[in-house]
Amino acid sequence: MQDKLKQYVAEHRDELEQYTPPEYLWYGVDERLQHGSRHAPWQRLAIAASVFLVVTCGIWAFIASRHDTMSATTAQAPITGTEAYYTAMVQMKDAELAQYCGPQPELCSDFKRDLESLNDAYLQLKKEYASSADKKTILQAITANLQRQLQLTTWQLQIMETVKQKKTEVQTM
Question: Whole-model pTM?
Answer without folding.
Answer: 0.52
